[in-house]
Automatic annotation (TrEMBL):
Pfam families registered for this protein in UniProt: GIY-YIG, SLFN-g3_helicase
Domain called GIY-YIG: residue spans: 26-101
Domain of life of the organism encoding this protein: Bacteria
InterPro entries for this protein: GIY-YIG_endonuc, P-loop_NTPase, SLFN_3-like_DNA/RNA_helicase
Protein name (record): DUF2075 domain-containing protein
Length: 552
């Protein structure tokens, strides 16, 4: 068995007898059980005892509607490789969004690890397997297309880092310990943009929902929810729910409908997870039908256990203004604890590049880090808008999912009219909205400019950031200058009567810097910057040259 073997057969007892007589029964294999119904189902697994495992599946009433099988074998397979391939297949099947998978999460999630020749199995051999499945018309999309989908990136079957896995297990124990205890219990997960918060939450919620359907679990029968105050992100979670057995769209909600529903029912949820909790309201908002003072407080009151993802550097509206003090004021009323994610998992940038961005959003300008030949991340300043646009278009042609985004310095209304970003330079329309697809995955969005609200929480391969008129340069002090009067996101700046005018002004500047922080940390492989302010653009180009000369 020197080559890859992919055997497609009917799934029945006759096939089982065939498996016993061929070499596939003597090696670790990966298998797919599925059907061709209008709404097809599938189960993906791996085993070292093919005949016995498949016999168990034939006797399992949950698999009775699966009548087709694919066995995948290779002489070089080992258990690390087959587990890796099984996980990859599940992730890509979820992204393909064709099959309802019958897989449930492992009780003990496995963490991301290396093994001998992992790259061969993970890239070369998996590509070959996927192409065979496409030939057999079991799947249709290419790996390249699926890899750029947000559903793939947030799949709950993604391997977790050791830090993510430790936190996941800690939270699961926290939930189990407190499920029958009196009071409200809170655990906050803090982490910077790109630290893997949403991937962890996706994995955690899927496992909790699987345990809710497991009669042997202490979480069996629990009523659990994932709340997302971000329309684009909610689309992604609902897309994932299409493919998994125990994730239901009714358990995926926005915060205000959840609060109002539980109030009407006069009931409490068991476990509630809140993604992007820094977007929750911290004051009454009648426009969004929220009649209380703080969304997080109201969610906690209606839940036995609340798990919140939080990053104060991603607050984008005064009515959602959070700081560490306010978070502590809320959580200190309850049985609360905090865990922190510290790794940067999105950006392939070195520490010097991350330091440059962090200083930039603190209004401090440093020479750009010197370019290194082996660098997996490109940071570049552009002098001309045309070259900037062309560079992003080229990257989109090369690797896909490369988009231009901008600070909210240009008029943008939801009246279906076209509004232009930087007519004198960029001269491109603001993003349109699609009902069932996230903005960046819409192919025509390469011809548009994304706002902070379309990309927060998502990955791009390359991001081109337009710094609009609210971001300029103080030559005397060699620092950024932020001018909130030029920022056009008026909804973000509704002042709060419970804060002083000085504090309101301070928060406005902080919101603009937060938005720049979020925009600059979207790209996996590159960040391109175009400043519309000529003095800032000139200074950034000087700092780029300084970095290049430093390298020489």
């Amino acid at each position: 068995m020197n080559e890859l073997i992919v055997e497609k057969k009917d799934f029945n007892h006759d096939h089982l007898n065939h498996v016993k007589t061929v070499h596939l029964n003597n090696y670790p294999i990966v298998y797919i059980l599925y059907n061709d119904k209008k709404k097809p189902s599938a189960y993906i697994g791996q085993t070292v005892q093919a005949a016995r495992r498949l016999k168990n599946h034939l006797e399992d009433k949950r698999r009775k509607n699966l009548n087709r099988s694919i066995l995948i074998g290779h002489e070089k397979f080992n258990q690390s490789a087959t587990y890796n391939i099984e996980s990859n297949l599940i992730n890509f099947f979820i992204a393909d969004n064709r099959y309802q998978l019958q897989n449930v999460s492992q009780t003990n999630s496995r963490e991301m690890h290396d093994y001998y020749k992992k790259c061969f199995y993970d890239v070369k051999l998996f590509q070959e397997i996927w192409e065979k499945l496409r030939e057999e018309k079991v799947v249709y999309e290419t790996i390249e297309n699926l890899r750029n989908k947000d559903i793939y990136k947030l799949s709950p079957y993604k391997e977790l880092t050791s830090q993510q896995l430790d936190i996941k297990n800690e939270i699961l124990e926290f939930c189990k310990e407190n499920i029958n205890r009196e009071g409200n219990h809170v655990i906050a997960i803090e982490g910077d943009a790109g630290s893997g918060k949403s991937v962890l939450l996706s994995s955690l919620f899927n496992t909790i929902q699987d345990l809710a359907h497991d009669s042997s679990s202490s979480l069996h029968g629990t009523d659990n929810y994932l709340l997302v105050n971000h329309g684009e992100m909610l689309k992604t979670y609902k897309g994932i729910a299409n493919s998994l057995p125990n994730l239901k769209k009714k358990s995926l909600m926005k915060p205000t409908p959840f609060i109002n529903q539980k109030t009407k029912e006069d009931s409490k949820a068991d476990i509630v997870l809140v993604d992007e909790a820094h977007l929750l309201l911290t004051k009454e908002d009648s426009y969004n039908n929220f009649r209380y003072q703080n969304q997080l407080d109201e969610i906690i009151k209606r839940s036995k256990t609340t798990i919140v993802i939080f990053d104060p550097k991603q607050v984008l509206k005064i009515k959602s203004y959070w700081d560490d003090r306010l978070l502590e004021e809320i959580t200190n009323q309850y049985n609360a604890k905090t865990v922190k994610l510290t790794d940067q998992l999105r950006m392939n940038a070195n520490p010097e590049t991350m330091r440059w961005i962090d200083h930039f959003v603190a209004k401090e300008l440093l020479p750009l880090p010197p370019k290194k030949e082996d660098s997996k991340f490109e940071l570049k300043i552009f002098e001309e808008a045309s070259a900037f646009k062309e560079a992003i278009e080229c990257k989109n042609d090369e690797v896909g999912l490369s988009r231009i985004v901008s600070t909210f310095d240009y008029l943008h209304k939801k009246d279906k009219k076209t509004y232009i970003v930087d007519e004198e330079g960029i001269n491109m329309p603001w993003n349109s909205t699609q009902d069932n697809i996230t903005w960046a995955e819409y192919p025509e969005s390469i011809k548009e400019v994304g706002s902070i609200y379309t990309v927060q929480g998502f990955d791009l391969n390359y991001v081109g950031v337009v710094l609009g008129p609210s971001v300029s340069y103080d030559e005397e002090n060699d620092r950024l200058v932020i001018d909130p009067s030029k920022y056009k996101d008026t909804g973000a700046f509704f002042s709060r009567t419970d804060l002083s005018p000085e504090k309101n002004q301070e928060i406005k500047e902080e919101i603009i810097l937060n938005s720049i922080n979020v925009l600059m940390k979207r790209g996996i492989s590159g960040l391109y910057i175009y400043a519309t302010d000529s003095t800032l653009r000139k200074r950034l180009l000087e700092l780029q040259s300084k970095g290049e000369n430093q390298y020489e």
